[in-house]
Amino acid sequence: MVIKVLGTGCKKCKELEQNVRMALTQLQLDAQVEKVEDIAKIMSYGVMSTPALVVNEKVVSAGKLLSVDEIKGLLK
Amino acid sequence: MFNMFADWLVEDVFGLSITSKFGGALHFFIYDTLKILFLLSVMVFAISFVRSYFPPEKVKRWISGKKKGIASVLAALLGVVSPFCSCSTVPLFIGFVEAGIPLGVTFTFLISSPIVNEVSLVMLFSIFGWKIAVLYVLFGVLLAIIAGWVIGKLKLEKYVEPYVFNIQLGESVVQEMTMRERFIYAKTNVIDTVKKIWLFLLIGIGIGAWIHGYVPEDLLVHYAGKESIFAIPVAVILGVPLYSNAVGSLPMIEALMGKGVAPGTALSFMMAMTALSFPEMVLLRKVMKPQLIGIFVLIATTGIIAIGYIFNAIL
């Protein structure tokens, strides 16, 4: 599984990345977490509000700082 | 309700008279803190809930392809309800331009979105009452439309960084939120907002309380009352670089108005703080050349000063 956190480096984006890692640890899942900060790449996902979360190249959330529980729900 | 509680706390618990200087200041502090925190929580919740129906990706689809006049009114109105954190300024701008939305209309959205937000609305309502809050929203929307129209007329596309036009936007497939998710989203926003502003709020209310209790009556009428011609431009220019202190300074303004500062002056100060901010300009620099930022700031500042005078004339 490849998980990408899209964000231009604001506070919420960093928090989202931490939450993703936490969710993965709690679920004991092994996944590759990537931070995408390049604006052109972010836009290529059609996302206009950051932070956004991409799982296996599919946008699952945009413009929201998801909680650890919410991410767990999305990854299951 | 909050007034009664503050009365009780100051007079019965602390044994101070409300008419004394310290008692008056303390009463102002307790009353304002309770009232603003309560209103803020309720409003942020309600507005966040409504906002969850208007993500920028959707707004973009609604605006693009519409006739210019309709697009610009739509952009201003959607700016009021659409969620837009300043860290999304850049992707938002690129997304709009990429969708073929005219530059002027994009600016309309960029101006209207921060001017009329839930925090400023709550502060206005609790400090000045609903009449001024409505007027503020109305003029905020009007300013966004006019400023955007002027920017569109000036044909400033050449000042947009060229790479913006080369970015390819993917198909957006953001899923609809469920009702439960909307509730969670609204609740999270309340907690975030309170966390972000409580310190500013307390400091602001503290200073406001001090002014309320200790600054002599009518001292400021001379400097910032209706008769003072320069008060508005000075207030606006002071307000432009300020941003994060918007919430904190409003209780101060409330107290200052109690001492004779004209309402138009106070409102234009607030508008300047919310519409234009230094951090936002730094972000905009990523997608546009300094000339365009300069023109944007100039037009918005002029508009806000004009609104200040209009307010002072009609209120």
Automatic annotation (TrEMBL), chain A:
Keyword field: Disulfide bond, Redox-active center
InterPro entries per UniProt: Thioredoxin-like_fold, Thioredoxin-like_sf, THIRX-like_proc
Active-site annotation: 10, 13
The UniProt record lists the keyword Disulfide bond: yes
Domain Thioredoxin-like fold: 1-76
Protein name as annotated: Redox-active disulfide protein 2
Domain of life (superkingdom): Bacteria
Stored NCBIfam families: redox_disulf_2
Keyword Manganese: no
Organismal lineage: Bacteria, Bacillati, Bacillota, Bacilli, Bacillales
Cysteine disulfide partners in this protein: 10-13
From TrEMBL, chain B:
Organism for this UniProt entry: Anoxybacillus flavithermus
Topology term for the membrane: Multi-pass membrane protein
Signal sequence interval, chain numbering: none
Organism phylogeny: Bacteria, Bacillati, Bacillota, Bacilli, Bacillales
Domain of life: Bacteria
Membrane-traversing stretches: 36-54, 74-97, 103-125, 132-152, 197-216, 228-246, 266-284, 291-311
A Pfam family matched in the record: ArsP_1
GO cellular component, one term: plasma membrane
UniProt name for this protein: Permease
Keywords: Cell membrane, Membrane, Transmembrane, Transmembrane helix
Principal localisation: membrane
Location(s) in or outside the cell: Cell membrane
Family: Belongs to the UPF0718 family.
